[in-house]
């Protein structure tokens, strides 16, 4: 019976219920059944007049600008609504919000001290968000991000890395026999595919790709980095896994990440530092007095690990 009712409600007003259900953390079955998660809808091709009225509630207009703002505010909830239903879902939410807000005012709920405290907090949050957008986010330019990337890259000393192949066998005698085949001109990759006990690399001719120091067992690593490119170990290298014949394919300095590869992460660094500096400046220029003795003595909160 419950699932049948949920299905009926979804068919009646699926998009709006999906958004409101998520907002209120209620009716999860309806929210899930409304529509699968999807990517945000594409922006309309033609420009839209933000002042255009799309609906009225008791004579008060709801405009395109209202739809846009609400769409941004409920973007996470809207991701669970089918793209072609999102615009109507937002309108339904705004209509319900206006109706409930009007009813609350009629009952005098906006006059209570608790509501005024909530309103002050919401106003402060909205102003904080607008300040962050205007004074922090927009201050982080592409030039600032590129400059930070260049500064960070300049601090990095590229590590040496080696590209190696290996053949792993169980006994020293097996390893010595393979080395003799290599000495006679045997193909390393072919022998690795035929004889290596390392299932991961054997099918790739023993290829291990590039690695830096500290990534492999010490005995293996020491032997690999000691080889000149094109050379293989003349004696078997023993590790806890067995006996290895190692060939150095190539040596190089580890490539540094390009700007395009890490620009998003670098921008977050610049954004964080700009935010911290901005808040520190505001605190320095303002008088903040913590009256509560326990809170005054308490250390600053640390982010959860």
From TrEMBL:
Residues 1-31 form the signal peptide. It catalyses: [protein]-peptidylproline (omega=180) = [protein]-peptidylproline (omega=0). Its EC number is 5.2.1.8. It comes from the Bacteria. The keyword Membrane does not apply. GO terms for molecular function: peptidyl-prolyl cis-trans isomerase activity. This is Parvulin-like PPIase. It comes from Kaistia nematophila.
